[in-house]
């Protein structure tokens, strides 16, 4: 599946993560940009968690921007899933 709309989930609060989704052209692949207050310690874990959710939802083409403030793995999963569903038009939300 390919996201159709811009969407977001999460906040800039401590222990949360803001996920922004931007649609891209079909077959352009995934572009994931991450900024985090805990980048040195957990960058690979954050990338893996995001990629696992995208794989599970069968998302191949998108631009995802993650702005992390120390979110736990379950929070990251929930925010990515919510943003993707909003981008696909499955769930309503902001943007």
Structural class: alpha+beta
| CATH topology group | Ribosomal Protein S5, domain 2
Binned, the helix content reads: 25-40%
Number of continuous helical runs: 2
Shape summary: globular
Strand order of the largest sheet: 1-2-4-3
Number of strands: 4
Unreliable sequence segments: none
Beta-strand content: 15-25%
Mean pLDDT: 93
Number of domains: 1
Q: For the CA atoms, what is the radius of gyration?
A: 12 Å
Order of helices and strands: EEEHEH
CATH architecture group name: 2-Layer Sandwich
CATH class: Alpha Beta
Distance between the termini: 20 Å
Sketch the major β-sheet: 4 strands, mixed
Structure description:
The chain is α+β, with helices and mostly antiparallel strands and 95 residues long. Helices cover 35% and strands 24% of the residues. It has two helices and four strands. The chain has a four-stranded mixed β-sheet with strand order 1-2-4-3, with helices on one face. The radius of gyration is 12 Å and the shape is globular. The mean pLDDT is 93.
Which key features would you list for this structure?
95 residues, alpha+beta, Ribosomal Protein S5, domain 2
Q: Which secondary structure elements does this structure contain, and how are they paired or packed?
A:
Blueprint (H helix, E strand, L loop, with lengths): L6 E3 L7 E6 L7 E7 L2 H18 L5 E7 L4 H15 L8
Parallel strand pairs: 3-4
Antiparallel strand pairs: 1-2, 2-4
Could you write a compact summary of the structure shown?
The chain has two helices and four strands. It has 95 residues and is α+β, with helices and mostly antiparallel strands. It has a single domain, classed as Ribosomal Protein S5, domain 2 (2-Layer Sandwich).
